[in-house]
Structure formats: C-alpha cells, structure tokens
Amino acid sequence: MKKITSFFVSLLCTLSIVFAQSSYIDTSFGVDGVSNYKIAEYLEADGPLNMDITDSGKILKIGLASNENDESLNIINQFNSNGALDLNFGNNGILELNDFIGYDIISKNNDIYISGTSTINGNIGILKLDSAGNKVSSFGNNGVALIDKFALGMTIKIDSNGKFIVAGRHINIDTEEEQLLMTRFNSNGTIDNAFGTNGALQVNISDVVDNEELYDINLELFDNNSLLVTGTVYTPENGTPTGEYEYNEFALKANSNGVLDTSFGSNGFSIYYDLTARSANIFDSYILSNNKILITIDGFDDSGFTGEPIQGLLRLNSDGSIDNTFGSNGLLTIYNENFYILDLFDSNLDDDIFILGDGNDENNNWHILILKVNENGIIDNTFGENGILSLDFPDYDEIEYITNGEELADGKILVSGFNNDNNGYILGRFFKENQLNVSDKALNTVALYPNPVRNEINIKSTQAINHLQIYQMDGKLVYNQYLNTNLADVSLLKAGLYIVKAFSGNKVETFKINKL
Length: 516
Prior knowledge:
Elements: H1 6-14, E1 34-38, E2 42-43, E3 51-53, E4 59-66, E5 72-79, E6 94-96, E7 100-108, E8 111-118, E9 123-129, E10 144-158, E11 164-171, E12 178-185, E13 200-203, E14 213-221, E15 227-234, E16 247-254, E17 269-272, E18 279-281, E19 285-287, E20 293-300, E21 309-316, E22 331-334, E23 340-346, E24 353-360, E25 366-373, E26 388-391, E27 399-407, E28 413-419, E29 424-430, E30 446-449, E31 456-461, E32 467-472, E33 477-482, E34 487-489, E35 496-504, E36 507-515
Antiparallel strand pairs: 1-29, 2-4, 3-4, 4-5, 5-6, 7-8, 8-9, 9-10, 10-11, 11-12, 12-13, 14-15, 15-16, 16-17, 18-20, 19-20, 20-21, 21-22, 23-24, 24-25, 25-26, 27-28, 28-29, 30-31, 31-34, 32-33, 32-35, 35-36
C-alpha cells in the first residue's frame, strides 16, 4: 500500500459540504451495498482493525474480540469480493488465532501474512496462512517465523525482494523501557541475518528524548527498500525541550541493510515537538514518488486536550526536515470540526491520494468523508461535491468509527469500519460518482451516435475527444482506448446499458449508451 497546500486550509474552512449520498452506494455488494456481520460477543474497537485485499479480490480483516465469557480472541475474517463471508475460510469465514496475537495483515499471491507476537514466549514475528486460513508449514517453524525479541509486531511490509519487514515495540524486560524494533525475515520465514544485527535493528528512543511509551507505529518502504518508521512518543511532563508537550510525532529512516540513515534527521531520527499540536497522534504515513513524506496528524492545539481539535497533514523532505513549501511551514491544518482524518490510501488509476475521514453535518448526522489530492497536495475539486465525497451506509446510524479505505482495481472505493450496533465489522463499496448525475441524454458539448449502438460509435464534439472509457452499470471498466479518430468500435461489448466517459484533456463528459 502506498498504503496539500495552504489554499486547502481556507477551502475547508469555507467549504459547504454536501452530505449523504445513497446514490453512490454499489448495491451489488453485500446487502444493498453493505456487508455487516456480528463477529464475536464483543469486538475491541480500540484494537487492530486492519484490512487488506488479496490478489483475487477477497477482503481480509483482523481484530481483537472477546466471547461471552470475557475471554480474549484474535479474529481474522475473509470476505468474498461481493461482501459475503468466505465460508471456505476458517470456520465459515471466521478464524480464531491460537498462540499468536496478530496486529497487521497483508497478502501476496493469495497467501496471508500477519505480524504480531507469540503468546507462548512473547517474541515478535509473522504467521503465514493459505487462502483457506490454514498454517503454511513450510514457512518458518510450522507457519510461524519468530525472532528472539520480546516485542509487539505492529506493522508489516514486503520489500521488492520478497522479504518481510516487521516493526513494533520492543520491551526491555530489565529496564521496562520501550524501544523501536525492526526485523527482517527471508521469504521462507528464516531470519535475515544480513539485516541490522543478527536480523534486527533496535533503537532506544530514550537516547534522544525521555519517553514512557510508543504509539501508532507505521512502517513504509522507499523504492530502494529503505525503511521509514513513524509514530507517536509519549513523553513525561517536562520531558521535552519546551517542557510541556506530551505526545509528539517522530520519524526514523534506516537503509535496506537495517542501519540508521544518518543523513535523515539527527543520525536517522527526527522528532517534531511543537510544530503540530500539544497532544498529537499519527494515524498513517505515506511516501510520495519524489520521496517526500506525508504524515497525518490528529491532536489538539496548545490548550491541550481541552483545546480545539487539529486535523492535518505534515510533509517532510526525504532527509526528515520539514518541507516549508507545503501548507503553513510544512503543516496543512484541516481546521474543521466536521472532518477527522483516519486513513491515507493511494489511487490505483493515477498518482493521486485519498484522505479518508468522518464527520457530522449541521444536524449532527454522521457521514464518511473522502478527499482526493494529487502528490503536490492540491485538492481535486472535480471529485465528489466541491472536492469532498460524502458517503453513507444506508440505514446504519450508529457506526462507531471508520478504520480503513481502499480503491479497488475497478476504481470503486471500499470502506470498512466498526459497527456499534452488533459489535461487528461493516463494509461498504461505493462508486466515486453520483449515479443519479449520469445523464440519460447526449450533452451539449459531446454527442455520441447512434444511440442505441450496435457496432461503432460516432463522436461529435466541439473539442477533440482523445480518450474513451466505457463501464458496465456495476462499475467494471470494459473499454479503455486512446483515440485518433472520431469512431470507436464497440462491437465486442455485450448488449445492455453502459456508462461512457469521453475525455478531452483534463475535461470529461459522462453519459449513458444502450448497446444492442
């Protein structure tokens, strides 16, 4: 996964958000566009609720739960691409982990990799499952790869060589100090001793700043397999240079061999005390194609927890310094009490980035909110309504919160979260365009004829049409051609209604055709 300028600040402050469009929902997913299952007696909303999409389009979710006896459970679910539980996975779509606590989940070639911690010895590592939820015995030791480090494996990535990097919190049993730990495993689950010292890189944050606990650890990889680790460090009162900031964002960079990159920050580590907020957390981070770094910020202003909420993005240069060309001195503040950032995810179709959040309208009704920006942080005003896409789970009012977003291969957006009604996951699949806005007649600037059409579409426009896309009504892209003529051959399309997008430069017209 790959997993915004100051103009954006004033835009959000004055933006009149158009909320709640049920016409964006993809009703072919789940039941009327929503998949909602009770997973356990109680699902931990504060636990890991991560999501990934397999190569075959199945949806993976991981979380912590408890049963009716208040016993803790670590649950993995697999859903089919249509939102139904995959009954061939685990026990009718639900797998309870034993002897391993999972935090993050990714997939490759439909196999599943979970970072976490052994409940037997507390060591950090990876659990590998096949697509049915069975342990892959050829990986590590009967499906589990561990290194002798007492730590929580909070996040996992696969590098370009097929090796696995896990980052998390290492707890020094003697001193009870928390350290950052990064470890790397070979593709077969053996420890990669070429990484760091005997397969691990440990960083004692207390050498840089007095700290009591680490939170929100995120791992990203640069194209050359260098590591970026971001997170939040809790410092005791008067534990920072300013003497007052308690929660502070940090970033660390190491090269692909597991050695701190001394050209980044101060000897590989950088902490951002007073730039953002008195008390702030990191939800996500993202490396841009130019190697600059985006970090989401969630916190409060200098009044502490009683102050105004601050949501925004911090952008760093590749050396860890603040990118002062971005926002206001490197920080884009979304000073809007109706937008709370939760996730960043990239577009599969272009270089843009989606910012997922949620918020309430003037009537205190809750909505999913998505912004789309390009790599320079410029908001796409053509996206959604005036730059913000507002979505709803129809007939669901008591959603605890949204946790993850993903753009699927067909361009639709999958959103997952936690449902307060039944302590279960809730998933929704959405179009990025309001389906009620698709015109039933030819537009003034573009005319396609004949319509209905059997073999060829003739294109008539006041501007040159150089690109044509045709989608089935379920959103699947079935025709994608760049044109040097005013004719488009659609003879191979099946009979039915289609949505057509005709592009002229960066402008687009959208309408329907009937294929005979």
